[in-house]
Design a protein that fits this description.
It is a single chain. The chain is α+β, with helices and mostly antiparallel strands and 275 residues long. It has helices at residues 2-12, 59-70, 191-195, 207-219, 226-230, 245-261, and strands at residues 21-30, 40-48, 52-57, 83-87, 92-99, 102-109, 115-123, 126-135, 138-145, 163-169, 174-184, 203-204, 235-237, 240-242. The strands form two sheets. It has a twelve-stranded mixed β-sheet with strand order 7-8-9-10-11-1-2-3-4-5-6-12. The mean pLDDT is 92.
Length: 275
């Protein structure tokens, strides 16, 4: 990371931001189950242009490259549910999410009240400074550097006088570390997989509507299979053949337990209560 970031800083002051994409790649370590010690790791992308800031899974870039080079239409989904766009120097986010077969966008105002502390340390060759905040029902610590003069960071975290290099909540459920940066000499087009779901326009939705969708789905996550079973058919769920209503009810209970266990959203204050 060190050489690539140092090279980036040198280029930063020689290249006009117009028609450029400044890309920062973070490694996100997160726990789907807050009671577990095991975690997952995914690469995330922060793209900054003169007009937009975007945050999304690195996985989309891999398949976007394949599609552009081969003319195919391979689709993938977010593993982190952290798909965002916002205008430059704005705290208003548009967050995208796939739910069943639909694509939604939800707007939110997310100004963060940071407390900048005098603590400093070295990360790679950067001198970074400490800042803390409360956001989304969690307490967070960020380390930022003024050597990269973007007041941006991963997910909805922005507003510091420099780029966030490291960010984590106090319980270690979400940890972001900057691992790479690059400059793309164009505004990188994400419209096929971010602003739309491979051509499907997102449906505007508010928080309460989205929470209702989640709770309705939790109430009966196998509802779409009931008619087939009633008509004597066989369905396959999680690689298991289901032929009777009794078997479907057992599967329903298993899925609900798994949904409840693996639910650790980054914004706890917006979480639904699975009973």
């Amino acid at each position: 990371m060190k050489k690539k970031l140092l090279l980036f800083v040198g280029l930063l002051f020689t290249i006009n931001i117009s028609a450029q994409t400044y890309r920062f790649i973070y490694e996100l370590e997160f726990r789907n189950d807050s009671t577990s010690t095991s975690s997952k790791k995914e690469k995330m992308v922060l793209d900054i242009t003169d007009q937009k800031t975007k945050f999304y899974d690195y996985n989309f870039i891999k398949y976007d490259s394949i599609n552009k080079n081969t003319g195919s239409n391979i689709q993938t989904s977010s593993l982190t549910k952290q798909l965002l766009t916002r205008n430059s120097n704005s705290n208003t986010n548009e967050q995208y999410s796939t739910f069943n077969f639909d694509y939604f966008v939800m707007k939110s105002d997310d100004a963060i009240d940071w407390e900048i502390l005098p603590n400093t340390k070295k990360i790679s060759d950067f001198t970074v400074q400490k800042a803390i905040c409360s956001f989304g029902g969690r307490n967070w610590t960020a380390w930022f550097t003024t050597s990269i003069p973007f007041n941006e960071g991963p997910y909805k975290f922005r507003g510091l006088p420099g780029l966030i290099i490291n960010l984590q909540d106090t319980k270690g459920n979400y940890i972001y570390n900057l691992i790479k940066s690059q400059i793309i000499k164009e505004n990188y087009d994400t419209t096929s997989f971010l602003e739309t779901r491979y051509g499907k326009n997102p449906i505007p939705i508010n928080l309460s509507q989205y929470q209702k969708l989640m709770l309705d789905n939790y109430g009966d996550p196998v509802a779409g299979y009931r008619l087939a079973i009633k008509n004597g058919g066989t369905v396959v769920i999680n690689n298991q053949k289901i032929q009777t209503s009794e078997e479907l009810d057992v599967m329903r209970k298993s899925i609900k337990e798994r949904m409840k266990k693996n639910y650790n959203p980054i914004e706890l204050n917006h979480a639904v209560v699975y009973k």
